[in-house]
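Subject: sequence -> structure tokens, single chain

Hey, anyone have a minute? Need the predicted structure for the following. Not urgent.
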Amino acid sequence: MTQDTLERGWHVPHLLLLSLLPVVAMGAPGLAHELRVAGWLLLNVAVIAAAERWRPYRADWRPTRADLVRDGGVFALNALVDALAKMALAVVALRFVSGASALPGWLQVIGGALLADLGSYALHRWSHRGGWLWRVHAFHHRPEALNVANALTAHPLNALYDGVVRWGPLVLLGFDAEVITALAMFHLTQALAAHANVRGIIGPLRWVLGSAELHRLHHSTDGREAGNFGTDLPLWDLVFGTHRSGPGPRAVGVFDPARYPVATATGRWLAWPFQRRPSTAQDRSPST
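Reply:
Had a minute. Here:
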């Protein structure tokens, strides 16, 4: 199948979920924030998983049973880490935040999306420069396929520090809890859709929103393609010169896979950042 065929048409699940997001985010204000986000996550996974079977970008990117065992286990572990991080942020907010932000809600949404993605962009780009942060982040890049199942597969430390830099500033600035919840739902959709094994594009929206067509290049094993550190928004990549576009990558994963544990060796990956190893020029990602 040619690249032109793979990218023909619209990325329907991404556009559908984005259109539903305002309705769901504003339509259940009485529901607990955690339940709202969890329900949104389940809906996103169901919609994208169905689309992956109906309109796959690459048939060989479908997850195996071993992949699903890894992804399910890591998801459960990271859900616990996320809950603990939110408890810590709540304690910090009670201790250091004196009042709510004076910004109107719409400005909190726009400013919050930009600020959250800036912190994540900076730390994500730093992680790709090598060293210990790359050893933590490499788990996310080890799979040689992208799909909704492994979209959130990352080392728990990776999930922890990304959550802190993404949401911590908004909590400290007194952003409204409804706004942070809506932005968390937006981030889930962006993360899942960006990794989705689904054909199609989002057209001109790719200049204002992260997309699968851009994020696949981030996972490329070709260093010339592997930019696009922003998952939610392409703005910071455009500002700082790391934006990449073009046909999809020939392969995704890491340089020299033999130097790393196999993709499904979850236990080895959890221990990987803590093992003493000599630093080499190859202990880094394809992108910088």
